[in-house]
From TrEMBL:
This is Acyl-CoA thioesterase. Residues 4-116 form the HotDog ACOT-type domain. GO terms for biological process: acyl-CoA metabolic process; fatty acid catabolic process. Belongs to the acyl coenzyme A hydrolase family. Keywords: Hydrolase. The keyword Hydrolase applies. GO terms for molecular function: long-chain fatty acyl-CoA hydrolase activity. SUPFAM superfamilies: Thioesterase/thiol ester dehydrase-isomerase.
Length: 126
């Protein structure tokens, strides 16, 4: 994925309550932002409700600092019968926009849900 040619699904600035003891942003905070962005993309693709069922290959590449602007990019990577994989990339913009750093990436797997919260075919809207 090339950052320059995409629009983020989310853009967020972490606050002072999101800092861990090392002065960096909590990994769980970043994970929740990724899940929100991936859920938006998965729900749009499925045409209805979805649930996160797995996270693959997540690695923290760089720390996120207070005052970084976090951009979360998400795209459908692959689609199965009832599930889909959403590729996520998180980029931190710092130094008043002069520096961009990829901070993490992962693949989130979602299942499309019917009205009874049971798996349903992705290509069958609610």
């Amino acid at each position: 994925m090339t950052v320059d040619h995409r629009n983020p699904v989310l853009r967020v600035v972490p606050g002072p309550t999101d800092i861990n003891a090392n002065g960096h942003i909590f990994g769980g905070w970043v994970l929740s932002q990724m899940d929100i962005a991936a859920g938006i993309v998965a729900s749009r693709r499925a045409g209805g409700s979805v649930a996160t069922v797995a996270i693959e290959k997540m690695e923290f590449i760089e720390p996120i600092h207070l005052r970084d602007v976090i951009s979360v990019f998400a795209e459908v990577d692959r689609v199965g019968r009832t599930s889909m994989a959403i590729r996520i990339e998180v980029v931190a913009t710092r130094d008043r926009g002069r520096t961009e750093k990829k901070v993490t990436e992962a693949i989130f797997t979602f299942v499309a849900l019917d009205e009874q919260h049971r798996p349903r075919p992705v290509d069958q809207g609610e």
